[in-house]
Write a structure and sequence with these properties.
Chain B: It is a multi-pass membrane protein. The complex is a heterodimer of chains A (630) and B (380). Helix content of chain A is 37%, strand content 21%. Chain A has 23 helices and 23 strands. The longest helix of chain A is centred in the N-terminal third of the chain and has 36 residues. Chain B has 380 residues and is an all-alpha fold. Chain B has 2 domains: 195 residues, no CATH class; 108 residues. Chain B is built from 16 helices and 3 strands. A 3-stranded antiparallel beta sheet of chain B has the order 1-2-3, with helices on one face. Chain B is globular, with a radius of gyration of 22 Å. The chains are: A alpha+beta (630), B mainly alpha (380). At the A-B interface, helix 1, helix 2, strand 1 and helix 7 of A face helix 9, helix 11, helix 12, helix 14 and helix 15 of B.
Chain lengths: 630, 380
């Protein structure tokens, strides 16, 4: 393009451009004028009718939320109808005055007012906001009689969520709560605003959250004629809402109850999986909480109690907390030795009671050692020295390469929110985890501790149970899942959640047999023998004890420190030994030795699962169990 | 002498000197309109909107009092400040409703993209003024870069409405500076082809699951809703359906002040902000809408007049661009409310509720007044 120099020419060009811009403006405004003419003159009659029809309001019809039942049909989450008193602020004369006058005929606590304020701030325009929920019949009658005094106030029949079993399986089922601005943003991102018009609740945790799309259902539209006050006078037509789908779980709620009770007042987690499908039979995180508290917005006091409790009841330990596996790691290590060819089942070594590496003595639990030890004995008596040496032979890379495919250190992909990855230690992991070069280096001595499940190892109870399930299922690793069927609300058709294999691990049958035989030996003559004394079935297992190095952020509460410094007690087990229908991992925080706290819980759970036997009290602590740090 | 200098009449004259009577009259009409509409649409907001008016008029007066040439010397610092704040938003901004637009500077939250609406044309006008007589393709490329950087930052937030306004503001300066038609034509052609194809193939493009390259889901949704509002009667389409009903049912003379059923039965969403035009069209009909169009047209004509008379290249460009910004606000807002443009968050200039846009717009009017005065000063 040409540069132009003379200011007059420049100015003339500018004026031409202004003229063009002016023409553009005229054309655009002309377009608008034409559009207004079209709407207001040509189609006026049509829109006039539409505006009259607008006394016809489109109202959303909120769908019933799907229910949740366990594998035997026991209801875990359902809906019930109750009356609420709702205010549409824009239609009242004065909001405060209206509430004050309402309070004269219906109980309105200061807490209700506070809640109302909160909901009002979060509510969308023109929506009614509840001031009281669960009105009694008498209150409804009293209000209806005086309704003319309260424009903009309505009694509505609404559905409420109820968790009839209360705190049982609360971490799995989760809870719903009122839609807040953050939820709203998420809904908007998913493009579901229309489907949530009229909905007040959304899944916040557990299955209620992860299966929100199934449970919510499709909102219907109802055309109603409204009078000038906005009250519905007559229903004209409607597209009914489609109720949300029901969930049928793999969970056996009776087994879940027994497992939860077995913990008594102790903290911990239990995961029981059906090895042939990856279906979760029980998923315990103790202590639990009552999800019903959350539905209508939890009170400050309840929240404080739950949130500040040193027992952290809201924490989903089974899938979120990672602990060193202790000696429960040994069967997997043994399988690694066999599979990589570093060991044969019959190969023995002499255990002097310690293992020397880099000038440091790694101690065995038994002073003087276990004598001659082969693979079988190493698992039955939980011999450390055997695994110190094996770890050194495998090397940290060898261990990580074997354990990774078993799911250690990665999310299993269970259909619940908030799963943790855990830590499968390796030199690579250390480089990523630490900043300073001297911290990033991997030391040979660290490999030795990893070999017996201590050190940097940290896995969720779910990972451990799922890895065990794979080992006793001929190496087929499944994605664990809690939901078995999604039941279509319209057709009643059951959509099966197919067991989803993650991978088939290539282990030799004789290697798997050697490990399983040794785990059966644990409960016959080894560290699990006392817990399973007299069991009329064969069961494989392994105890474990995870060292607690520090309080790890737990609050200092005097008198409890010593308890909080006790080791974590682990037990993994599967039964029946020849054709397992259950594989489980139990962790008791600060429970001491694996045989002391965790194994008796496993016994109660397996007793019920195989024999239908119900215990009459929490699993006992076996104070006489003798073991040292395994 | 001194008492004479402070004589009330002289003070009043000194106070009125920066004010352009024509623009002031137009403003008065618009504010009056705004007051009448707000009383109907949302009377509880009258007080706070009056506060906004007062602040905006003060800002307008201040801008008008600054000589036109001095205004331009503020361009570079304002522009740089705007860019730095936009980068700040990208790095530390607050996320609200899925977009990162606000910056918390301790005392208050600010939205730097708003500043850019005025800083952008000032910057470009100042730049062309510096290069006066030597404006060639290099200058246009550089101006394009000055425009692209902040626009890209705003698009990323993401804020489609504001980025369009800022891009348009900058483009107007470049256009008035004499960008070759050869370069403008292809853009116009590609743009109309794109819009044309969306209209023609809208049905298949709007199927769920079809992804539009470079366009976010909610933006796609807006365009699709415009093509067929009935697809989503409870969602986004609700706005457009209800506002066209409001406009159409207003007829030639309207339903009368305070008598709009759409407005008063609360069918009209956002009726005090972006959709206030629908209130006007419903209650005052085609007549009321035409009056508003004429008032806007007068504002734009006066702006162009000031631009054509402006003494220097920089002030000419700035006045022209500011005028076109008014046009853009008005056209995009009324186009969206009447259903010929997609729903983007652009208020009806000088009338919609809200302080930020009002201050920006009045700052623009102040700039026009200041430029008009620099012409007078030059003559005398």
């Amino acid at each position: 393009m040409n540069a132009y120099h003379a200011p007059e020419q420049d100015n003339a060009r500018f004026r031409r451009r202004v003229l063009v811009a002016g023409l553009f403006v005229l054309v655009c405004f002309g377009l608008l004028a034409a559009r207004f003419y079209f709407l207001q003159v040509v189609r006026h009659d049509y829109f006039h009718t539409r505006a009259e029809d607008n006394r016809i309001a489109l109202l959303p019809v909120v769908p019933n939320r799907g229910t949740i039942v366990d594998r035997n049909g026991t209801v875990l989450a359902r809906n019930y109808a109750a009356y609420t008193l709702e205010i549409t602020p824009s239609r009242t004369g004065g909001l405060e005055d209206t509430i004050d006058r309402l309070a004269e005929i219906i109980t309105i606590e200061p807490r209700d007012r506070r809640n109302f304020r909160k909901l009002l701030d979060e509510s969308r325009n023109f929506e009614s906001v509840p001031i009281r929920t669960r009105l009694s019949d008498e209150e409804v009658a009293r209000f209806v009689a005086q309704r003319y005094r309260f424009p903009g106030v309505e009694v509505q029949a609404r559905l409420f969520r109820d968790y009839p079993l209360g705190s049982t399986a609360s971490h799995v089922v989760g809870y719903i709560g009122r839609i807040n601005t953050r939820d709203l943003e998420r809904i908007e991102e998913r493009g579901e605003i229309a489907n949530y018009r009229g909905s007040n609740y959304i899944g916040k945790n557990g299955l209620e959250l992860s299966y929100e799309a199934e449970l919510h259902g499709t909102t219907g539209v109802e055309q109603v004629e409204v009078n000038a006050g906005g009250r519905a006078v007559r229903r004209l037509s409607n597209t009914p809402a489609v109720a949300g789908n029901d969930l049928e779980l793999t969970l056996d709620i009776e087994l879940q109850k027994i497992a939860e009770n077995a913990f008594g007042k102790r903290r911990g987690a239990l995961v029981a999986i059906e090895p042939s499908t990856g279906g979760v039979l029980a998923l315990v995180s103790a202590p639990t909480f009552d999800p019903n508290l959350f539905v209508e917005g939890i009170s400050t006091q309840d929240w404080k109690e739950l949130n500040e409790s040193p027992d952290h009841p809201l924490l989903h330990r089974a899938i979120y907390s990672a602990y060193p596996p202790g000696s429960t790691f040994k069967p997997f290590m043994g399988l690694a030795g066999l599979t990589t060819g570093k060991r044969t089942a019959g190969q023995t070594m002499a255990d002097p009671g310690y293992y020397v590496f880099g000038g440091h003595r790694f101690m065995d639990d038994k002073v003087g050692g276990h004598g001659m030890v082969d693979l079988h004995k190493s698992i039955v008596v939980s011999c450390n020295t055997y695994y110190y040496q094996l770890a050194n032979d495998l090397g940290i890379e060898g261990i990580a390469n074997f354990m990774g495919p078993l799911g250690f250190g990665s999310r299993t992909g269970i259909d619940l929110p908030g799963e943790a990855e855990g830590v499968l230690p390796s030199p690579d992991w250390k480089k990523r985890r630490f900043r300073k070069p001297e911290q990033q280096r991997w030391y040979g001595g660290e490999t030795i501790s990893v070999g017996i499940g201590q050190g940097y190892n940290a896995y969720t109870p779910l990972q451990l149970a799922n890895a065990l399930a794979a080992v006793v299922n001929d190496g087929k690793l499944f994605k664990p899942h809690v939901v078995r069927h999604v039941v279509d609300s319209r057709s009643g058709e059951k959509r099966v959640i197919e067991p989803e294999p993650i991978r088939q691990l290539q282990y030799k049958p004789e290697h798997l047999k050697a490990i399983r035989d040794a785990m059966v030996g644990v409960n016959k003559s080894g560290t699990g023998a006392r817990a399973f004394a007299g069991a009329p079935y064969e069961v494989g297992g392994k105890t474990g004890t995870a060292q607690v190095f520090s309080l790890r952020g737990a609050k200092y509460v005097e008198g409890r420190v010593t308890e909080r410094l006790r080791d974590h007690s682990w037990f993994i087990a599967y039964a029946p030994a020849d054709k397992p229908t259950i594989a489980l991992a139990v962790l008791v925080e600060n429970g001491g030795f694996g045989s002391q706290s965790a194994a008796p819980i496993a016994r109660q759970v397996i007793d019920y699962h195989l024999l239908g036997k119900r215990p009459n009290q929490p699993a006992p602590e076996d104070a006489d169990a003798v073991e040292s740090i395994e | 002498m001194s008492d004479n200098r402070f004589h009330p009449l002289r003070l009043l004259r000194a106070f009125l000197r920066p004010i352009d009577p024509v623009l002031a009259l137009i403003m008065a009409v618009l504010f009056g309109y705004a007051f009448v509409l707000m009383s109907s649409a949302s009377p509880e907001r009258l007080d706070s909107q009056t506060m906004h008016f007062v602040i905006a008029v003060v800002v307008m007066w201040c801008a008008a009092a600054i000589p036109g040439q001095r205004l331009l010397s503020l361009a570079l610092p304002l522009y740089l400040l705007g860019v730095v704040l936009l980068i700040g938003v990208a790095l530390f901004g607050e996320v609200s409703k899925g977009a990162q637009r606000w910056l918390d500077i301790g005392i208050t939250r600010i939205q730097p993209s708003e500043l850019m609406k005025i800083a952008m044309p000032m910057m470009l006008a100042w730049f062309f003024q510096q290069r006066e007589g030597r404006i060639g393709w290099r200058e246009f490329i550089f101006a394009g870069l000055l425009l692209a950087v902040p626009v890209a930052l705003i698009v990323r937030q993401p804020d489609l409405g504001t980025s369009l306004l800022v891009a348009a503001a900058g483009f107007y300066v470049i256009f008035f500076a004499g960008l070759s038609w050869k370069l403008i034509a292809p853009v116009v052609i590609v743009g109309s082809l794109g819009i044309g194809s969306i209209v023609a193939f809208g049905d298949s493009l709007c199927q769920p699951g079809v992804e539009w390259v470079g366009i976010r889901e909610y933006q796609k949704h807006r365009v699709c809703t415009l093509l067929d509002p009935t697809q989503d009667p409870l969602g986004k389409g609700f706005h457009i359906i209800q506002s066209t009903i409001a406009i159409g049912s207003g007829g030639v003379l309207g339903k009368g002040w305070m008598a709009g059923t759409q407005t008063h039965l609360a069918f009209l969403p956002e009726r005090h902000t972006d959709f206030i035009f629908a209130v006007l069209a419903e209650e005052f009909g085609l007549g009321g809408a035409a009056v508003l169009l004429v008032v806007y047209l007068l504002l734009i004509l006066r702006g162009f007049q000031i631009a054509a008379m402006a003494p220097t290249l920089g002030t000419r460009l700035l006045a022209g661009a500011v005028t076109m910004i008014f046009f853009t606000y008005a056209f995009v807002n009324m186009g969206m409310v009447s259903g010929i443009l997609p729903v983007v968050g652009v208020p009806l200039p000088f009338i919609s509720y809200g302080g930020t846009a009002l201050v920006t717009l009045c700052l623009g009017v102040g700039i026009l007044m200041s430029i008009r005065r620099s012409r007078l000063a030059n003559k005398s």
